[in-house]
Amino acid sequence: MLGTMKNRVVRSSLLLRGRAAPVVTGGLLGLALGLHASASPAEPLSPRRPPLPIVQLTHGRVADFRVSGFATSADRGRIEVRGAGPCRFHADIYDLAKPSSLQHSEFRKIVDPGTLPVVFDDIPPLPRGSYRAYLMVYDEVLCAIKGPDPKAGGWYVDFKVAQATGPAAAPAASSGPTTPPQAPGGATPGAPKPATGKLAGLSVPGGSFAEDDAQKLLATGQGGCGFDLSISDKSYGGTYEKTWPVLPRKLDGGATLYNGTHFGTLAEGSYHAVATGTGGCTGTGAIDFKVTAKTSTKKVLGIPTVGFDREPKSGGVFSASKDGNIWFKVTLPKAVKDEPYAGCCDVEFDYQNEFGGWEPLPNSPFQDSSYGLAVTQPAGVVNKSVSGFTNGTVWRVKVRAYKFKTEFEWSDWLQFRVDPK
User: Fold this and answer.
1) Separation of alpha carbons 346 and 369, rounded Å
2) HSE-up of residue 348 (Cα within 13 Å, Cβ side)
3) For a surface tag, which of 94, 138, 150, 305 has the fewest beta carbons within 10 Å of its beta carbon?
4) What is the DSSP pairing of strand 317-319 with strand 305-308?
């Protein structure tokens, strides 16, 4: 069976209305309570950037975000990200007419200063319609990003796609119900349900969290609900104020929101947060809370890699009857392997709920020491039964190393599909 984990990505209120994900039930929950695992592709640590105390970290910077090529529904598009320094980010394109419809998603990062722009130049054609491309960094503390809207949690670009004519006039126009977008690996998720629930409250589990903890907020209410999450320290004399759209979540029983996934990592200080229902969801919730000082005394740079040791046998989907298990392969960068007493790994699994949002398994992230060989061997390979992934058919996983009072970087997300029957 599986385990649990969590994720991180920053978004803005100017994006689409209505985004979030539900609470985990059944299958993987049992798995979440008794496991240990790891995840994604890593870069070797540059000899110019050895592990340093946190206070000496060099920050990256996103300088420009450009979208081109999407003239008609027959044209492939192009995204360019310009900047300098170490920066991990997440680029998405949303259909403005259907807030829950994620048309395309890329995961890339800006590497060392002075390199050429990072370019995604083979994005599939989009149906006729209006779109928003959005760039979100994983950690605003380590990578600065300031787009045209200073209050946005990232950088966005709006554009339109005209209907192509002639023999190459596919895909069809984006009006009314359409075929859901393909997920990585060629998988096609089911059409999301309308999220028309009611938001009732917002709280902080435990009352507060540290700057380098897994920062969590808890949204409660009824049904599926997407909402805008605004966080500011202005009422406490600060200047921070940002808003992120949260994809629909299941609020019955509470929906946990994580930094790096649903909102930006917050520095030490006092904050006021407000959640406001969007896209058919009603209600609001608010909370005042504190972020305490960091508890870690060191940060080790180096991004781990998680992939598959064995690919699915057919159709890009892991099947319980054909594959039996999913073999995850985790590789750690040298800086992590060289860190005394480092373990592997903290793991987070998310599944796509019926509203189209990502739902973390309970208790994310959790430690899964079964990936421990990744510290001493070239890679750690661990199998998880396909039959344990019962909460959904579309999943993603990420991992990082762990050690007392030491901060490590997360891998990128690895997305996959399952057929647990």
Assistant:
1) 8
2) 22
3) 150
4) unpaired
Q: What are the residues facing 382 on neighbouring strands?
A: 328
User: What letter does residue 374 receive in the DSSP assignment?
Assistant: H
Structural tokens at position 174: 């984006």
Q: Which helix (H) or strand (E) holds 120?
A: strand 118-123
Of 398, 298, 404, residue with least CA distance to 42: 398
Residue 223, CA atoms < 13 Å, CB-side half-sphere: 15
Q: Within 13 Å of residue 61, how many CA atoms lie on the same side as its CB?
A: 6
The single-letter code of the amino acid at 310 is R
The least confident of 101-105, 185-189, 388-392 is: 185-189
- CB atoms closer than 10 angstroms to residue 64: 12
> What digits encode the pLDDT tens for the residues 212-243?
888 999 999 999 999 999 999 999 999 999 99
Write out the two tokens for 358. Answer: 């990502």
- What token pair was written down for 68? 């081109």
Residue of 356 and 401 predicted with greater confidence: 401
Within a 10 A sphere around the Cβ of 325, how many other Cβ atoms? Answer: 15
H helices present in 342-396, as ranges: 373-376
- What's the token pair of residue 224? 């599926």
3-state SS class at 10: coil
Phi and psi at 342, nearest 5°, equal -70, 145
Pairing of β 129-137 and β 241-250: unpaired
The CA angle 185-187-191, to the nearest 5 degrees, is 145
Q: What is the CA radius of gyration of the chain?
A: 21
Give Cα 160 to chain centroid, integer Å: 26
Please state, as a whole number, how many other Cβ atoms lie within 10 Å of the Cβ of residue 59.
14
- The whole-model pTM stands at 0.56
Q: Which domains does the chain possess? A: 27-45+297-419 (2.60.40.10), 58-161 (2.60.40.10), 198-292 (2.60.40.1930)
> What's the pLDDT score for residue 47?
42
Residue 249 pLDDT more than 80? yes
DSSP state string for 244-303: EEEEEEE-TT-EEEEBTTTBPPPPSEEEEEEEEEETT-EEEEEEEEEEEPP--SEEE---
